[in-house]
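Q: For a teaching session next week I want to show students how multiple molecules come together into a single three-dimensional assembly. I've collected the sequence lines for a complex. Could you give me the predicted structure tokens for the whole thing so I can convert them for display?
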Amino acid sequence: MSGRYELRFSGAGGQGLILAGVIMAEAASIYDGKQAVQSQSYGPEARGGASKSEVVISEGPIDYPKATVVDALLALTQEACDKYSHDLKEGGVLLIDSDLVTKAPAGNYNVVSFPIINTAKNEVGREIVANIVALGAMVALTGVVSKESAEKAVLARVPEAFVDLNKKAFQMGYEKAMAAKK
Amino acid sequence: MAKKVAFMQGNEAAAQGALYAGCKFFAGYPITPSTEVAEVMSGELPKVGGKFIQMEDEIGAMAAVIGAALTGKKVLTATSGPGLSLKQESIGYACITEVPCVIINVMRGGPSTGMPTGPSQSDVMCAKWGTHGDHPAICLVPASVQELFEETVRAFNLAEKYRTPVMVMPDEIVGHMRERIVFPEPGELEVINRTQPTVPPEQYKPYDTQFGDVPPLAAFGSGYRFHVTGLNKMADGFPTTKAAIVQAEEERQVRKVEANRADIMKWEEYLVDDAEVVVVAFGSTSRSARFAVNEARKQGIKAGLFRLITFWPFPEERLLEISKKVKAFITPEMNLGMCTGVVKGCIEGNAPVHGIFRVDGEPINPNEILSKMKEVK
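A: Of course. Below is the structure for the complete assembly, covering every listed component.
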């Protein structure tokens, strides 16, 4: 399915994965001048339950708004990893939280893992920014949007008081992923 | 001047479309997956001198928009699933009293509570037959964020032009997906307002057919007084059981839409001219279908897409024409065969119709459509 780059952000409801997908799509669509569509799937629970947010990025018009063959998958829980990794393409990027996803799916994937939620909680200082840590890491691993565009998109979504916190979260995720990749 | 561009969700775009059309009143009761329409209206209406009311339930919300419409305002409500069922009695009331109003129904699984967060296309029959009795039905089924904006504007136009309720029915995927939208400038899209009476108040009758099938509608509070009832009525709005009047009035109400099908119907044909297999689809499913058609063409299959933009009135005549030269139709839909049945009903057996039905909360994947094309070509 040529010309499409497909990302899926998955985890539990309440982890901010839909927002992470929206920011990725805004980085591509608004700041990088590409086409992007973001969609989501979640359960009826306000918290918990498997949740996913998908982003399709392309140079041209996008018909089918959902993922067909996933290029890059983020999984923040074991449940989401089990449920949503079946259509990850061979050699595709799989970013997992090393504390929460202990069993990576069998297959030829480019697996990158680091303690994403723990990084947010203990190194950035707030667990709530785990989605932005993960977003920074996905930007580093996929290169599908520029780092500058992604950072602009993050800051455009964040209230004034939390700009520094989110900047730090994004940067930390970016760096950790670059280090983990090596 | 550069146009205003945004990356926006479908439901938000629907609300923006309503505001563009001049909507000044929203009453609703929040329900997934339509709540964002209410959220935007609650923030924006006060800024343009409008009113937003969260009612005690969907029944109250539908009643409130009918009342507000009679004061001359353009009105909107939004709902999903069981909320649409609750509104049905009052939708019938709006049909017989001929009150313009727009209902956005973002389709989720059903019946009853069903799957609140899952996508579906299973309300399209409810748009026509949900309320009892013979009545006109207009239902629009947009497939993108941009189109949801534009079709919401058109829904207001059709409601005002024909004095009747109009439904806009995006599926959950279209309602919740985000993509780029280019906002039309004011004046770029047509905006229609209802016809006002030209006679003085003492001569005014709300259903006076000397002015045509769509009589002018006066605004309460503007000096015009008239009777509004859910009973079959005469030209002055008061009830009647006179057979000839009841028959003529019911026929006129339906004729408002049926005689103007060409004005209301809208569809898109993509690579249909030489197609042997034509997919008939709407909403997000039509996006899967377009993807599948493009893949099929690369593989040498002559496939095309007939994309419905209005579901009601249904473009029967055009599909009948197409049916005379194709080998098969494929009808993918997130229900158990609603559109499929309507297609079968209008093509006089000229070609087989192969449905692809999903009600499991998952979208129909382009590969499912492509496989079916290979099977039937």
